[in-house]
Write a structure and sequence with these properties.
single chain, alpha+beta, 4-stranded antiparallel sheet, 7 helices, 4 strands
Length: about 220
C-alpha cells in the first residue's frame, strides 16, 4: 500500500492525501477491515488553499461507501462467519456462568452466615452454575468445528484465540476437579482449585471482549 502525504482523516477507515510530497491530486486511503485496504485516485486536483478539500472528502466518502458494498459481497479469508446458534448459545451461557459464579463468590465470602435461606440460595446458585455448563460445551463444540480451524490461519486474533482456548479448557478441567474432589480428603487442594477456577472465570469475559474487539480498525 503506497504511503500518502498530508493525510487528513475523513472518518473511521477513510483518509485522503497525496501520493507524493509535492503531489497535485487527492487520493483516498480506504480500510474496510484488516484484510481489505485500497488506495484510489479521486480525480480532484489538490490546492494549497484547500479550496477542493470539501469536494475531495465528499467524493472519498461516496467511493468508500460504493467499494464497501462491493467488498462485503466478497468473503474474506480472515472473515469467519459463525452460525447464530453457536455464538448466541455460547454468549448467553458464558454470561450466565460468569454471573452465577460471581454471585457464588459473593456468597462464599459470607460463608459464616448460618441463615437457612442463605445456604439454600448458595447451593442452588452452584446447581444452576453447573447446569449452564452443558449448553456452553455444546456451543463450544460447534465453534471448535466451525470457527477454530479457519481461525488458525489469520494471525490477527491467533494469540487472543489461543489464550481464550486455554482459559476455557482450564475452567472445564478445574470445574471437573471441584466436582469430583472429596473436600474431606483433599481440603487444601480443593480450596486452591476453587480459587484458581474463580480467578480464571473472572478474567474470562474481559478476555472474550478483547478477542472480539481485535477486529476493529483505526
Amino acid at each position: 500500500m503506497p504511503k500518502l502525504y498530508n493525510t487528513l482523516k475523513v472518518e473511521k477507515g477513510l483518509k485522503i492525501g497525496l501520493r507524493e510530497k509535492s503531489g497535485h491530486e487527492w487520493f483516498a486511503d480506504m480500510t474496510f477491515d484488516r484484510s481489505k485496504r485500497t488506495c484510489r485516485k479521486l480525480g480532484i486536483p489538490f490546492s494549497a488553499e484547500n479550496s477542493n478539500l470539501d469536494l475531495a472528502k465528499r467524493k472519498a466518502r461516496k467511493l468508500y461507501k460504493e467499494l464497501n458494498k462491493e467488498f462485503k459481497k466478497i468473503p474474506s479469508e480472515k472473515e469467519l462467519n459463525l452460525q447464530g446458534w453457536e455464538t448466541k448459545t455460547l454468549t448467553y451461557s458464558l454470561s450466565l456462568l460468569w454471573i452465577t459464579g460471581l454471585v457464588w463468590i459473593l456468597f462464599q465470602t459470607l460463608s459464616n452466615n448460618n441463615n437457612e435461606l442463605f445456604n439454600y440460595l448458595k447451593s442452588n446458585i452452584l446447581f444452576v452454575h453447573g447446569l449452564l455448563i452443558a449448553p456452553a460445551l455444546v456451543a463450544l463444540g460447534g465453534l471448535w468445528v466451525a470457527h477454530m480451524p479457519k481461525g488458525w490461519k489469520p494471525k490477527t486474533k491467533k494469540f487472543s484465540g489461543i489464550a481464550l482456548s486455554i482459559f476455557l479448557v482450564s475452567l472445564i478441567l478445574s470445574g471437573l476437579l471441584l466436582y469430583y474432589i472429596d473436600s474431606s480428603q483433599a481440603f487444601f487442594f480443593k480450596n486452591y482449585t476453587s480459587l484458581l477456577h474463580s480467578l480464571i472465570g473472572l478474567l474470562l469475559i474481559p478476555l472474550i471482549y478483547w478477542h472480539y474487539t481485535k477486529k476493529s480498525i483505526n
